[in-house]
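Saturday, quiet lab. Running sequence design on the structure tokens for the scaffold JK sent over.
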């Protein structure tokens, strides 16, 4: 009896899994401003932004969150790792062939910190857009802050906090991120 039940559930799963995958894909792309049909949505994502564009060949892994009132532009063949959060007050752009590992956080704004009013009541401060050029690799847990421009081919080590611009092909690690070398 147990073998029949297991076999039955395996057959049901073969029909249900494609429906679940279709639902995840459709619920994601229906909220995107612009997308190409061959993006891959590997799990549940939170899309709380009406200004997101995603290029062809992009893979979006589970629990990615795209939110905020600003524009988010994601290039072609980008990997958005599990639990990654991208928040845009004004503008975040990610170039082609960028690898973003798990648990990364990219944000283009910060809270105000004036003494004469509560932090929650202060408007956001935007130093500038976040721009991540093509062929960049962000290691696991990287935080990219407002106004940062990460140059083409740069590598940012796991756990780094990027609060200043990183030049092309640089390798940066640490808190705050410091350049330790360049790709050969």
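Result came back. Writing it out in full:
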């Amino acid at each position: 009896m147990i073998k029949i039940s297991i076999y039955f559930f395996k057959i049901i799963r073969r029909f249900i899994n494609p429906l679940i995958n279709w639902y995840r894909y459709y619920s994601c792309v229906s909220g995107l401003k612009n997308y190409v049909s061959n993006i891959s949505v590997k799990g549940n994502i939170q899309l709380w932004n009406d200004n997101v564009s995603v290029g062809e060949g992009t893979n979006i892994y589970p629990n990615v969150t795209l939110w905020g009132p600003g524009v988010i532009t994601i290039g072609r063949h980008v990997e958005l790792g599990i639990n990654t959060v991208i928040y845009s007050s004004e503008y975040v752009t990610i170039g082609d062939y960028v690898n973003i590992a798990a648990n990364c956080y990219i944000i283009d704004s910060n809270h105000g910190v004036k003494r004469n009013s509560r932090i929650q009541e202060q408007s956001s401060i935007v130093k500038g857009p976040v721009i991540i050029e093509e062929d960049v690799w962000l290691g696991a847990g990287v935080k990219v802050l407002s106004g940062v421009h990460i140059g083409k081919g740069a590598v940012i080590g796991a756990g780094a906090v990027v609060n200043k611009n990183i030049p092309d092909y640089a390798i940066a690690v640490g808190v705050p991120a410091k350049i330790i070398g360049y790709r050969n």
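Notes for JK: The CA atoms of residues 137 and 149 lie 14 Å apart. The radius of gyration is 19 Å. Ask whether to fix the surface positions before the next round.
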